[in-house]
Design a protein that fits this description.
By secondary structure, this protein is α/β, with parallel strands linked by helices. It has a seven-stranded mixed β-sheet. A seven-stranded mixed β-sheet has the order 14-15-19-20-18-17-16, with helices on both faces. The relative contact order is 0.06. The chain is built from 13 helices and 25 strands. It has three domains: 199 residues, Ribonuclease Inhibitor (Leucine-rich repeat, LRR (right-handed beta-alpha superhelix)); 113 residues, Phosphorylase Kinase, domain 1 (2-Layer Sandwich); 209 residues, Transferase(Phosphotransferase), domain 1 (Orthogonal Bundle). It starts with a helix and ends in a 7-residue tail after the last strand. Helix 6 runs antiparallel to helix 8, helix 8 runs antiparallel to helix 11 and helix 11 crosses helix 13.
């Protein structure tokens, strides 16, 4: 009996070691597969420089996204000037998105891609792939996007692909494919444009008969039964009627065939895909429309400067009125055109349209031309949180405390939805008060999510490029260019401080020597000195609940911790705002600050919290935020 407890502990310890080893074996296999891919590719721009084989976990590499179990779910290497060949990637069992478009990768498409049964999107378009389309791709039963266009693929289209019932987007155009184009199963949804510029393809979908087959005829269901003469009726009237009916059918056949093709053609809008109600009761449906450039020119008075609502890193936003009188906001994206950009833009628009939540800005539609990329959103009557805090007219009332609390909770729910409910998950990268908009009822809606993909796509492969707003950028993003959900948590924490104090994240107050006060450091100083009354926006004239303001400030400081792993998830932020678990988290932070000061955003000093443009610290005292 004396050996029972030690033996149990021993077995438990062995199991922990075993699970640890299994987890690391899995990470090693995925890392090995990705390192083999790097070895097979030529990388003139050093896009893959972070893919270090000595690092066990590939989740730390750029252009690789992992889930919460540290399994690779996305490899994003589009438009990266890569060449070479594609190696088998069957070890990436949980991979959902493989994006290698707009490179110069050659050789065959590995058949083992069919083993990646969790794959949702396979984007290999605009490369130099040759050989046949692997029949094994038919095993990808979760595949929604298959784009192999603009390559040198040859051979027939595998019939196995028609069994992929989830397929929403298919493009096999501009290859050297031959033989019959299937028109059954999932392929019945796609129009000739999906197979265009394959000179040796044939069949009803292409309009070109295959060798040895009879000419096409209209579907039987469109032949009127009333024109068929009754048996035995051969009088002159019947003969004339039969000739007339035959002539009418001859001339009607092309029209009926066109109508039949039109009926099969997909509409020019995309439907949102709702999540199950039990996952998020706030999800609703919407339609995404494709607008013409002329419609939006008319709506905005040719993008007149008088209609500009705002400017940002993604472009200008214009107020517009559609012909039916609907007010809209038209975002005119500032983008450098790249090969394949049209397809990339449409893909990202489709993905954004599927993110639907009451606290997310709903995308109404888009416009895409060779020279323009525009997004159409509902017009938000009350502007942004930033404008309500700092740009309101003297006659307008300030945001009251209940409204600020509703903004804090609603925007947290929106970010939690982007992080936890979207597939793929969406990282905002620029959470700030200017990107939280307010509708007629002052309900918050988070805007500009998912737009980072629309910018010059080559920039996303340069590790030094950081997109965001000074004062809102998390320290790890600023130093490495690597983003995560915790980057958004940091931005949310700064936004929450803006909401409480009414101040900007930087440029809090201008001093005679032009030094800038950083909001986060200023708040930390007042919290340590227990001067909450100096922290809260004086525009509220003390009409707030002090314990709630203190709790919201604590949540903000938990979100802005220097080490990303110490920050809560947005789902935890929601619970803390609702009064669950904040006290424990705050007490834990206080203990950590006493023993481990280096995890702070910057070394904290009670008398040194003013930051100038050269990053030198100077001692100064302020009486308050204004």
């Amino acid at each position: 009996m004396k050996l029972e407890r030690p033996f149990t502990v021993y077995i438990f310890g062995e199991l922990i070691i075993l699970f640890y080893l299994l987890e690391n074996i899995s990470a090693n296999l995925e890392g090995d597969a990705l390192h083999d891919l790097r070895s097979s590719l030529q990388d003139p721009n050093n896009v893959l420089q972070s893919w270090d084989s000595t690092l066990v976990n590939p989740c730390t590499w750029f252009h690789v996204t992992c889930n919460n179990e540290n399994s690779v779910i996305r490899v994003d290497l589009g438009n990266a000037a890569l060449s070479g060949t594609l190696v088998p990637l069957g070890q990436l069992k949980n991979l959902q998105y493989l994006e290698l478009y707009s490179n110069n990768i050659s050789g065959p498409i590995p058949g083992d891609l069919g083993n990646l049964t969790n794959l949702v999107s396979l984007d290999l378009y605009m490369n130099s792939f040759s050989g046949p389309i692997p029949d094994t791709l038919g095993k990808l039963t979760k595949l929604r996007f298959l784009r192999l266009n603009n390559n040198s693929l040859s051979g027939v289209i595998p019939m196995s692909l028609t069994n992929i019932g989830t397929l929403q987007v298919l493009d096999l155009s501009n290859n050297h494919l031959s033989g019959l184009v299937p028109d059954n199963g999932s392929f019945s949804l796609f129009t000739p444009i999906s197979f265009a510029n394959n000179l040796n393809l044939c069949g009803p979908v292409t309009g070109k008969p295959c060798p040895g087959t009879p000419p096409f005829s209209p579907p039987r269901s469109f032949v009127p039964t009333s024109i068929v003469p009754s048996p035995g009726r051969k009088d002159a009237t019947g003969s004339i009627a039969g000739v007339a009916a035959g002539a009418a059918l001859l001339f009607a056949a092309p029209a009926m065939a066109f109508a039949w093709w039109q009926r099969r053609k997909p509409r020019e809008h995309f439907s949102d895909v709702p999540l199950p109600a039990e996952e998020d009761p706030e999800v609703h449906l919407g339609l995404l429309k494709r607008y013409s450039l002329r419609e939006l020119q008319v709506a905005t008075d040719s993008f007149s400067n008088k209609n500009i609502l705002g400017r940002g890193g993604f472009g200008k936003v214009y107020k517009g009125r559609l012909v039916d009188g609907t007010l809209v906001a038209v975002k005119r994206l500032k983008e450098e055109r790249t090969p394949g950009g049209e397809m990339q833009f449409q893909t990202e628009v489709e993905m954004i349209s599927m993110a639907v939540h009451r606290n997310l800005l709903r995308l109404l539609g888009f416009c895409m031309t060779p020279t323009e990329r525009l997004l159409v959103y509902p017009y938000m009557a009350n502007g942004s949180v930033a404008s309500c805090l700092r740009e309101r007219l003297p006659s307008e009332p300030p945001l009251d405390w209940p409204t600020r609390k509703r903004i804090a909770l609603g925007s947290a729910r929106a970010l939690s939805y982007l992080h936890d409910n979207c597939d793929p998950r969406i990282i905002h990268r620029d959470v700030k008060a200017a990107n939280i908009l307010l509708d007629e009822e002052f309900e918050p809606v988070v805007g500009d999510f998912g737009l980072a993909k629309f910018m010059d796509y080559k920039d996303t492969h340069v590790t030094t490029v950081v997109r965001g707003t000074i004062g809102h950028i998390a320290p790890e993003y600023l130093s490495t260019g690597k983003t995560s959900e915790k980057t958004d948590v940091f931005g949310y924490g700064i936004m929450l401080l803006e909401l409480i104090t009414g101040q900007r994240a930087s440029d809090l107050a201008r001093l005679p020597n032009d030094d800038d006060v950083i909001l986060l450091d200023w708040v930390k100083s007042l919290v340590k000195e227990k001067k909450l009354e100096m922290l809260v926006d004086p525009d509220m004239r003390n009409n707030y609940i002090e314990p709630e303001a203190e709790q919201h400030t604590q949540v903000a400081l938990l979100c802005t911790q220097g080490w990303p792993m110490d920050r809560p998830k947005m789902s935890e932020v929601i619970r803390m705002l609702e009064g669950d678990g904040l006290a424990e988290k705050w007490e834990e932070l206080q203990k950590v600050e006493v023993t481990n000061q280096e995890v702070e955003l910057a070394p904290y000093r009670t008398s040194q919290w003013i930051l100038n443009s050269t990053d030198n610290l100077h001692a100064c005292e302020l009486s308050g935020p204004r």
